């Protein structure tokens, strides 16, 4: 029997025809709800007992088992006796709900919200309009206020607010906001601390032809934020007020191709110099929001730099390039060709400016070289980053220094074993940025520290920086941070869980998030490599699903895939031509893959190469620097290689 589980309101279960399925008392519904809240992960019996009782009776464990047995009978009335349950699976000493995510309203709501964050406005409006209709009240409304329902209610309620705001913004961007006024008035009144709620309401009032009311709403918002919450006026309120007073065209948009919507409704300034610098500046502001905006921002920055160079004015070109100072936390470019074109433009511009270039401008151009020409072993790129840092320190220019430290970070991957250096860079970035109000670089410092701590196996330390990065991201509206911290949490799950299916599901969910994040340099090949790491750590063959796109990792993973398909000859041929992995975040991960290849093929020469490459990383976690995947301790891999080499002698 196909069932639908609903928790966005009182807990209910229905069959496919909408008929109610009786699942029993509140306690039984609470067990079901707790399994829903786990998101498909197993919940240990001890956790269920602790969540159901403040002071568990001696019979608590047996009672929970009885509840689970009764729920199984209710959810699967046609299941034969003594056959495994497909709805609630026993996993170790606990239980996991195996109802498809599409059949659980909370999961379906989360997945819909995640999937449409960067979709065109009409798709967002339609999908979230339907998703919001699934809510029937407060989540888990028929349960008491014990800790786990309270936590889950708060999480889902925040997602509900985000969905409502995202849908409203999409409708407003389509110019159809007038009917939203009553809904947004109630929302802003209920959540007066949410600045964005007042912005949405004012935009809807303006589209309804109520300009005076829109301005009054913004004025009232300022007063409430200051008097009730002690918050100064937000820039978004000030910008919108100015736009309303000048009747800015973007407030009443007409139908357009939103995927190609220009980021810059505010770069209509006359004059080539101002326009091009504005393009780069606003692209910088848009890039940190991720998704489509990040892709368009990078395209726009490249276009502005190319157009500036065509003017023949090297000073203008330099200032256009320098205006885009977006932090970089990953060593693989999203578009290598575009990055190399920018590097070529920057190098030509430095030559044309010559020694007379202002030192601050030269420092930023050199840092750009170090940032854009990353993932290589080219010495000149590392030298550019070092010179940029020296100039910035001499000038006492915190912005230029933050950029130069970022460049030094990505260039540190030219040699393995420089985790301590990256840790020091992160510490300085955090302190420098906090002193000089450089929030995006402060976030970068915490993200680097997450990578460093993950590489060292210091998960508690990493989690402290996860919390710090997420706090800053919430204040400064940088949603990409949450995708990266979600990647770390998935890695932690891979380290802790004994259930490969649970971890594989988590990695597939993460892949969905990465697909919409606008970071192809991170996304390309990430899912199959994560699945491979999971299989190798559990002693299983590589995944052979032809739908998996290995991307840039294919040369290193191909021998193991050939072996999994039973083609030893092809595996040996592929292993014989393996290149050295790039000098980037995945260097140690790909050498770990190569180590497994050497051991499975009994290739002593390849094993020796892998041993030499991984030796500088003793004491670290293979793949840990990514803060996304793990191949286990480097020491364990080295021990296995040493044992293999000894056996071959």
Question: Could you explain how this protein is built, in words?
Answer:
The protein has 649 residues and is an all-alpha fold. The chain folds into 4 domains: 3-123, Arc Repressor Mutant, subunit A; 175-251, Serine Threonine Protein Phosphatase 5, Tetratricopeptide repeat (Alpha Horseshoe); 267-483, Serine Threonine Protein Phosphatase 5, Tetratricopeptide repeat, CATH 1.25.40; 502-648. It has helices at residues 26-37, 45-52, 60-75, 105-116, 121-132, 147-173, 181-190, 195-207, 211-229, 235-245, 272-287, 291-310, 314-322, 336-353, 359-372, 379-395, 398-411, 419-436, 439-456, 459-476, 480-496, 500-515, 520-523, 526-537, 554-564, 568-576, 587-601, 604-614, 634-648, and strands spanning 3-6, 12-15, 43-44, 88-91, 94-97. A hairpin with a 2-residue loop joins β4 (88-91) and β5. The longest helix has 27 residues, at 147-173. It is flat. The N and C termini lie far apart (60 Å). The model is unreliable at 255-270 (pLDDT under 50).
Number of helices: 29
The biggest beta sheet reads:
3 strands, antiparallel
Q: Termini, distance in Å?
A: 60 Å
Uncertain spans, ≥5 residues at pLDDT below 50?
255-270
CATH class wording of the largest domain: Mainly Alpha
For the secondary structure, the number of strands is: 5
Mean pLDDT: 88
- For the biggest β-sheet, the strand order reads 3-5-4
Specify the CATH architecture of the largest domain: Alpha Horseshoe
How helical, in percent, are the residues?
55-70%
CATH homologous superfamily descriptor of the largest domain = Tetratricopeptide repeat domain
Structural class: mainly alpha
Radius of gyration: 27 Å
Strand content: under 5%
Gross morphology = flat
Please name the CATH topology of the largest domain. Answer: Serine Threonine Protein Phosphatase 5, Tetratricopeptide repeat
User: How many domains, as an integer?
Assistant: 4
Give the oligomer, counting copies of the same chain as homo and different chains as hetero: single chain
